[in-house]
Amino acid sequence: MNSFLSALDTIIAEILSKRRDLSEDQILALIEDKKREGRGLLSDEGAARLVAEELLIQTHGTELGKMQLKDLVSGLNDVSFSARVLSTWPPQQFQRRDGTPGRVMRLILVDKSGRVRCALWDRHVDVASRAGNLQGRIIRVGHAYTRQGLTGEPEIHAGDRSSIEIDPQDIPTTDFPEFKELFTQLGDLTTASNQVNTVGIVDSEPRHYTFSKENRAGSVLYTILTDQSGTIPVVAWNEKADELRELKKGSILQVLNARTKLNSNARPELHIEARTQVSILPSAPNFLKAPGPRKLKIADLTERMGSVDLTVSLIIKGEPREVKQRTTNEAVKVSTIVVADETGIASVSLWDEKTVLVDQLMEGDIIELHGVSTHERFGELRLNLMSSGNLEKSPAAEKIKPPITKLNALGTSKGLLIVEGTMIDEPLVRQVVTGKGENISVASFTIRDDTGSARVSVWRDQVNDVTKLPSGAQLRITGLRVRPGLGGLELSSIPIAKIEIIEKPMI
């Protein structure tokens, strides 16, 4: 705080020495006026420098390496600072209006107070290029100037009268954030954000699509990025999708200045757009920790896990169907199966070429799932097996016994359930209209076990299955969700739920 006040006092003293017609109170009032014009975006020092500029007073640049990036404003003519290089772009050549050639190299710089874009011009490009890879290193810039960038934020320009120094020895690196601190772990990307830096391991083979929107062609790439903390879907658009054509499963992908947005399930996605800088790294940075092998049980699964492996029993097979991608409107194939281990049951969606694997399996088979990703939809944990994953039949002969949920435990149950009990009343059939305007049948009845009772609703073709059953039938229903109802918690079937008679009533 003291060094900050000293910088402000120095500027005020310079103004007073050259404008003897102004008092200190008048200068302070001008600074406050300037801060109000900046709508809270200007610091005291930044506002004071702008006041000096408007009074045509040349202030001395802040001591080399001492100015903080948060204090920068557009329109300053003598700025000196030090920062860590977050990213660089290759040098560009251009021709000035007078026909002379010019060069520029653009950087993003950071310190503990913020970040800023920087342009190195002409001879400084040579210095920076000879230094090799600048990312993560300290740069000191002297006597630069600031201008307003395209985004409205200040940019730093190192021109003819400026100086630059790479890795200055007299500045402790502890004055700047560690390079790894500039990157967010994937598991911490939980909200929407506009300036995301991260790095991870590509966990699925990227899928490329082309599309047409408003008579314009576009392209998009989908993949999954993972690290030890979690996983996140990645969506790269247009020129960035084309730039990542060489991306493969196992690649190390560095992403700078990306955007996260929440999808319809309130799950974050990482969007790589024109402003984003992406790099396929030759090796993983030392701070990137890869996820280890994770052979888990269904009850251990949580949302946004990385790639996991499971040994499960196939208890329901669904027929392949086509669905359309939300962004591209392109049809893709998907098959849904329900699997179980001794801790729980879950639905798994098999995508694209994985759908044919269902035809090679029988209900009751023990299968190994490798590279499964998790997500949550409407409060239910669901699993996905994409092109990067694998499914194979296990040689294990021992059967897996899925858990049966008692009806008095619905309040603490999560995910899909299997229940057994007696149907104690006739099914009540009614017609309902879905959100898509579809008219479908639903049948509701009460089931009871030795701990309690619950209302059950089944849908579409399952209605015919239960209306043929007499009251008193002993049932096992696999694939039920818990939901709130008028009389308390109720059970509702999934589209591929299985209804079995385990004991017919005495006639």
Brief synopsis:
The protein is mostly beta strands and 507 residues long.
Search tags:
OB fold (Dihydrolipoamide Acetyltransferase, E2P); mainly beta; five-stranded mixed β-barrel; 6 helices
Walkthrough of the structure:
Helix content is 12%, strand content 44%. By secondary structure, the chain is mainly β. The chain folds into five domains: 1-60; 73-181, OB fold (Dihydrolipoamide Acetyltransferase, E2P) (Beta Barrel), CATH 2.40.50.140; 183-281, Nucleic acid-binding proteins (OB fold (Dihydrolipoamide Acetyltransferase, E2P)); 298-393, OB fold (Dihydrolipoamide Acetyltransferase, E2P); 407-503, Nucleic acid-binding proteins (OB fold (Dihydrolipoamide Acetyltransferase, E2P), Beta Barrel). The strands form four sheets. A five-stranded mixed beta barrel has the order 1-3-4-6-5. Strand 10 (216-227) and strand 11 (230-237) form a beta hairpin. The chain is elongated and about 100 Å long. Residues 1-5 and 61-65 have low confidence and may be disordered.
Task: Produce the secondary structure layout.
Layout: H1 2-18, H2 24-37, H3 44-54, E1 79-88, E2 92-95, E3 101-111, E4 114-121, H4 123-130, E5 138-148, E6 154-158, E7 163-166, E8 193-202, E9 207-213, E10 216-227, E11 230-237, H5 239-243, E12 252-262, E13 268-272, E14 277-281, E15 308-317, E16 321-324, E17 331-341, E18 344-351, E19 366-377, E20 380-385, E21 390-393, E22 417-423, E23 428-433, E24 439-448, E25 453-459, H6 462-467, E26 474-485, E27 488-503
Parallel strand pairs: 4-6, 11-13, 18-20, 25-27
Antiparallel strand pairs: 1-3, 1-5, 2-3, 3-4, 5-6, 5-7, 8-10, 8-12, 9-10, 10-11, 12-13, 12-14, 15-17, 15-19, 16-17, 17-18, 19-20, 19-21, 22-24, 22-26, 23-24, 24-25, 26-27
Helix pairs in contact: 1-3, 2-3
